[in-house]
Design goal:
It is built from 11 helices and 10 strands. The protein is α/β, with parallel strands linked by helices. The chain has a 6-stranded mixed sheet, sandwiched between helices. It has a 4-stranded mixed sheet with strand order 4-6-8-9. α1 links the parallel β2 and β3. The chain starts with 5 loop residues before the first strand and ends in a 12-residue tail after the last helix.
């Protein structure tokens, strides 16, 4: 049975998905998995119609950390290249124009947790586990997990999570803000994601993309100015003045 982890890309109208899948059901964070994810993200980044992207998985786990056998052959130069590529891919995922949600149905450890951190929101089933256990191998998160955990949780909570290499239950992750919502079963993930998007659909797609850019770069004036370079702000202002919904509010995934 093959343990190759594929990344399936699907687009249905303004909704898209990136799905980790493997014959064994044990999805792992190998160099090849990362390359497939990077290709999927690049494909979706060029699609102006997509408003919601769900990062999900089929099988026993969401993504169960690194391919340890692969990493056992790394020297410092190869490790650096792997980390640089991982950081670049996570940055691209974080900058997707669409709203991104990690739908976590199983363990999201190491690289799996870093992918979830690169999404805008994280919803997990109650049985899921999440964490950054790299220090227990004498390593650190290599795909931007240190900076993203610190931004999301604050430096102190991020240190506690990463220094100890602990793995949290979904409920414990919810308590510290690592997870946004916990649902009972995998079948509940879809409705929870729909409720989340319904609460956000009034925001203009391009405006949301600019918010994401401002959060990533810290350059709010440039992102604000870019809003006026397209037609969306004109439509939004006109809709407000005419007391009607903007056109994008009529289209939901």
């Amino acid at each position: 049975m093959s343990n190759i982890t594929e990344v399936k890309v699907a687009v249905d109208g303004c909704r898209a998905s990136l799905t980790f899948t493997s014959e064994s059901g044990l999805n792992v964070s190998s160099r090849e998995t990362l390359a497939r994810l990077a290709h999927g993200v690049e494909t979706l980044a060029g699609n102006p119609v997509v408003r919601l992207t769900v990062v999900r998985a089929e099988g026993k786990v969401f993504l169960a950390g690194a391919d340890i056998k692969e990493m056992s052959g790394f020297d410092a130069d190869r490790a650096r290249e792997f980390s640089v590529f991982g950081n670049r891919t996570m940055d691209s995922l974080a900058l997707l124009p669409s709203i991104t949600v990690a739908a976590i149905q199983g363990a999201a450890l190491g690289g799996g947790c870093e992918i979830a951190l690169a999404c805008d929101f994280r919803i997990a089933v109650k049985r899921a586990k999440i964490g950054l256990p790299e220090t227990t191998l004498g390593l650190i998160p290599g795909w931007g997990g240190t900076k993203r955990a610190s931004r999301l949780l604050g430096p102190t909570r991020a240190r506690r999570l990463i220094f100890g290499g602990g793995v949290l239950s979904a409920d414990d992750a919810l308590q510290i803000g690592l997870i946004d919502e916990v649902v009972a079963e995998e079948a509940d993930l879809g409705p929870a994601i729909q409720r989340l998007f319904d609460s956000l659909h009034r925001g203009g797609p391009r405006a949301i993309a600019m918010v994401k850019r401002a959060l990533a770069t810290g350059d709010e004036p440039a992102a604000f100015a870019e809003c006026f370079a397209g037609s969306e702000s004109g439509e939004g202002i006109a809709a407000f003045m005419e007391k009607r919904p903007a056109t994008w509010m009529e289209k939901r995934p």
